[in-house]
């Protein structure tokens, strides 16, 4: 036994000599920097747009030179009440930021070693104090007789024994609980308690999806004999009939993995909605990376370059999903080591699955994403309905304010291929507004994925269309503002 403990002790001493104090994922660093920008001060957003920079949505008339907005007094009251919420999931107590402080990524070896250190520490904390500790109930039934309780108890005891050897022989500091997981700030504790009360009824999501599918079937039957050019614009579902049609084009090869994915999410994340959303967003952004990779390959080989603008749209879609991911991380969705391990490895596998699927049939690849985005839309819709009052009492995280109410919304417009650029501007006052906006984002992804499956025309960039129509801010030369008081 001693012969086994000694080499293990020496190995662990290398990685424990400069222990990290906490673990959270890299995007939380962004949340921390944004928080420093917005903490203690109202988040001010640009509200003045020239009339030439705004394109009205279909069916809405705009008077020339006038942009409808709330009164200055109402805007001021809203801005004064809008502050970024700090939920405490930052790098504040980390001693070594490692390669995360570098503007250019370090080499693979350095990043790998540094990441091994922090993940090893995260695993130990998960077993000793965190999501795999006896009191968590994650892998242990009440009373400590769960299916993995025996194995975890053995690992826990081994870790303590090795820690005793390292502390005694090599003066290595002992493991301590993460400060991020055990905050002392009263406001942070209050916000986290409110977050822990958020719920999601999986059966409610299933019922909502079933009701939506029945409505879609009814509409298809109602208009089955009508020419597609005469389809009504308003179906009551905020989508057109062509989008409804593509939903039912999924073959069993696509439908079965999709249903399995939904079942798995329900089982693994029952009672943990924020963690479920974080995992969903980690996976949901992957197909857009796969599409771009395949389109680059086809273009490089000279196989296809008819609709190169679709790469711009896919990048904007991934950018949108990335910010959804940042938002969930700012709410603590990635704190459990097992969730990170599962989601990130699943994302790598998913990337290559979509690559292979795109190689077989791009339409199938887009259709699978459409199904996943529909599931996300239904899930967020059920979540905001169940938690409306509680979400309205919680502040929006800084990253949500920066993304949705910041000055640079070019990419936000770019992924919404079904509407004119600048026709959608969410107003974020609280966490309810954040989740409603994310729900609506997912529906826009549904529309874009549906449009990618239609063969009659290539995908167009919304911003390029706005520029061609002279509606984009960059379509006209800048004009000097008239001095105040001049006539």
Automatic annotation (TrEMBL):
One of its GO terms (cellular component) is membrane. It is found in: Membrane. Residues 466-475 have a biased composition (Low complexity). InterPro entries: AOX (IPR002680), AOX_sf (IPR038659). The chain crosses the membrane at residues 348-366. Belongs to the alternative oxidase family. GO terms for biological process: alternative respiration. Residues 466-487 are annotated as: Disordered. One of its GO terms (molecular function) is metal ion binding. Its cofactor is Fe cation. Keywords: Electron transport, Iron, Membrane, Metal-binding, Oxidoreductase, Respiratory chain, Signal, Transmembrane, Transmembrane helix, Transport. The keyword Amino-acid biosynthesis does not apply. Residues 1-22 form the signal peptide. It comes from Vitrella brassicaformis (strain CCMP3155). It holds the Pfam family AOX. This is Ubiquinol oxidase.
């Amino acid at each position: 036994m001693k012969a086994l403990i000694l080499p293990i002790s020496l190995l662990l001493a290398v990685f424990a000599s400069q222990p990290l104090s906490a673990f959270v994922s890299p995007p939380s660093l962004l949340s921390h920097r944004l928080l420093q920008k917005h903490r203690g001060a109202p988040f001010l957003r640009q509200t003045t747009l020239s009339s030439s920079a705004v394109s009205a949505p279909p069916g809405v008339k705009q008077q020339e030179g006038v942009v409808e907005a709330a009164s200055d007094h109402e805007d001021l009251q809203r801005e004064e009440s809008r502050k970024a919420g700090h939920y405490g999931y930052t790098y504040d107590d980390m001693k070594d930021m490692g390669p995360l402080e570098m503007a250019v990524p370090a080499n693979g070896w350095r990043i790998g070693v540094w990441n091994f250190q922090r993940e090893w520490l995260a695993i130990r904390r998960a077993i000793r104090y965190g999501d795999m500790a006896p009191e968590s109930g994650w892998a242990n039934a009440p009373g400590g007789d769960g299916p993995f309780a025996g194995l975890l108890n053995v690992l826990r005891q081994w870790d303590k024994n090795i820690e005793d050897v390292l502390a005694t022989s090599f003066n290595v500091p002992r493991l301590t609980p993460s400060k991020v997981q055990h905050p002392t700030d009263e406001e942070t504790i209050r916000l986290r308690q409110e977050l822990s009360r958020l719920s999601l009824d999986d059966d409610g999501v299933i019922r909502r999806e079933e009701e939506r599918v029945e409505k879609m079937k009814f509409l298809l039957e109602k208009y089955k004999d009508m020419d597609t050019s005469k389809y009504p614009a308003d179906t009551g579902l905020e989508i057109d009939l062509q989008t409804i049609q593509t939903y039912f084009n999924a073959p069993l090869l696509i439908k079965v993995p999709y249903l399995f994915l939904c079942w798995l999410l329900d089982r693994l994340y029952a009672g943990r909605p924020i963690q479920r959303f974080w995992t969903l967003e980690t996976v949901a952004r992957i197909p857009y990376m796969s599409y771009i990779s395949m389109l680059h390959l086809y273009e490089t080989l000279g196989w296809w370059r008819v609709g190169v603008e679709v790469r711009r749209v896919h990048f904007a879609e991934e950018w949108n999903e990335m910010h959804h991911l940042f938002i969930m991380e700012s709410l603590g969705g990635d704190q459990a080591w097992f969730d990170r391990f599962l989601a990130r490895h699943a994302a790598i596998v998913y990337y290559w699955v979509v690559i292979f699927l795109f190689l077989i049939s791009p339409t199938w690849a887009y259709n699978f994403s459409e199904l996943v985005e529909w599931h996300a839309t239904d899930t967020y819709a059920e979540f905001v309905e169940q938690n409306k009052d509680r979400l309205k009492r919680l502040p929006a995280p800084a990253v949500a304010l920066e993304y949705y109410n910041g000055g640079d919304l070019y990419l936000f417009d770019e992924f919404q291929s079904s509407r004119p650029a600048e026709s959608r501007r969410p107003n974020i006052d609280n966490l309810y507004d954040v989740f409603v906006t994310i729900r609506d984002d997912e529906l826009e992804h549904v529309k874009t994925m549906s449009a990618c499956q239609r063969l009659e025309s290539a995908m167009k960039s919304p911003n390029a269309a706005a520029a061609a129509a002279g509606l984009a801010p960059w379509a006209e030369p800048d004009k000097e503002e008239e001095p105040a008081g001049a006539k």
